[in-house]
Amino acid sequence: xxxxxxxxxxxxxxxxxxxxxxxxxxxxxxxxxxxxVERMGDHWDRPGWADQQRSYYWMLTFSGATELLGxxxxxxxxxxxxxxxxxxxxxxxxxxxxVGPTDQVTEAQVEQLIAxxxxxxxxxxxxxxxxxxxxxxxxxxxLTPWRPMIRLHAALSAVGDQVRVPGGSPTSALRPHLGIxxxxxxxxxxxxxxxxxxxxxxxxxxxxVTSVELVELRRQDRAYRWRIVHSAxxxxxxxxxxxx
Length: 244
What we know:
By secondary structure, the protein is an alpha+beta fold. 25% of the residues lie in helices and 28% in strands. It is built from five helices and eleven strands. The strands form three sheets. The chain has a five-stranded antiparallel sheet. The relative contact order is 0.25.
């Protein structure tokens, strides 16, 4: 059973889409939320993130996804005049769940996380990364469908609760997305929305998710960088689509 998403003012969009599986519903919902943003803030102006800080996160990473990398580069070039900080090709990711700062998570807890995620009750799944929408601090791809990512988040949250790590946002507040450029100043959102709009006709990129990575994350040179600590394989898909 998929956990229920709820309205959450800390999330963006605050309300979840009406349908967690329908691409049109999710993409349209993301776009309408972005159109309603009046001002964008500096993504890097976040309390609690020092340059020396390291934190553990669960993430989906895409170093070998050539279709995604090409689409992201195309969109970044089209938006270059905005002066945002593009996500490097080896930095594209989907944040699944915060585990906690490295100084608040012990080596023993990391070992427990690794052991308990050897057999996650989640199957491999396929996503589509759709150009293009945004938030108050970034330009990003919409992802569809949401349901498998919600199930993965819930499974990882359950493991984190069992190990008693600090953890992150609840599954009910999950709003999956894939950022391609971070806003680095306070500005009116309307010119960004206008620049993004023509790119929305581009076809989506296909992403096959077969694992989730536990990483040690840091901020470096206005980008997120990480060291993979563990790659947790997902169960084989029940369909043949991931093997085609």
